What does this fold into?
Amino acid sequence: MVGTIEKVGSEANTQKIGSKVGVAWLYSSCGSCEYCLSGRENLCQNKKFTGFSKNGGYSEYIIADNRFIFNLPVGLKDEEIAPLLCSGAIGYRSFKLAQASPGSTIAMFGFGGSAHLTLQLAKKLGHKVIIVSRNEEHLKLASQLGADFTFSPKNGEVYENLKDKDIESAIIFAPSSIPIMNALKVIKPGGRVVVAGIHIDGEIKIDYDSQLFHEKMLLSVESYTREDMLEYLRLATNLGIKPVYSDIKLEDVNSALTELKKSEVMGVKVIKF
It folds into this structure.
């Protein structure tokens, strides 16, 4: 969310009324557990999430934790910044965990709100990017945003079409177990598969010899840290990363969620009050 501070609590002495700030998915963490103290607050067992454990952005006014709000980059519209605070940050965390070598090839499975921002990031940083999606319109958008190769599983077996693409790492944005198993097959020895989703449908069945041997790694992503967010906002500003978006009114949310379920959203939808 992007909004303006209307009131400030007695202990929120770093913020000023009238400042425009961003509020993201990670609402707060305890600040004192082993994870918080080691820079891994995203794994805190007492963390809270905006819109899940605390009221979120389907409202004109919210209460936010002073420690977990962000000063905004200049030169971007509010509608361009809001997606960076969720879709963008999760994609950035996934990209970091992939630990892709400079100039290497990254495969991304699924192409929605997070992937279309992560593609831009990877390309700006000099990587080759392959996008795999069943949605032909999404693949067209991926090509427009600079993807080096796009492929739909409707057009053939994923492994046979990607096995010679020199893929070092993969990020799974699609909420399905099938892309995870395909990605483990196509990455190079020593490569990483990072799963960006909160939930995955289906059972993951791994054949040790063909999918996990040769020191391949499978990791999941849980939110992000404030450090991740600050890094990403700087990168997005400096590299010119912007979402493809359309803005909607609050009363249009249900129809937008239906479009999302049907994979009909191009980029992201932004609620504008």
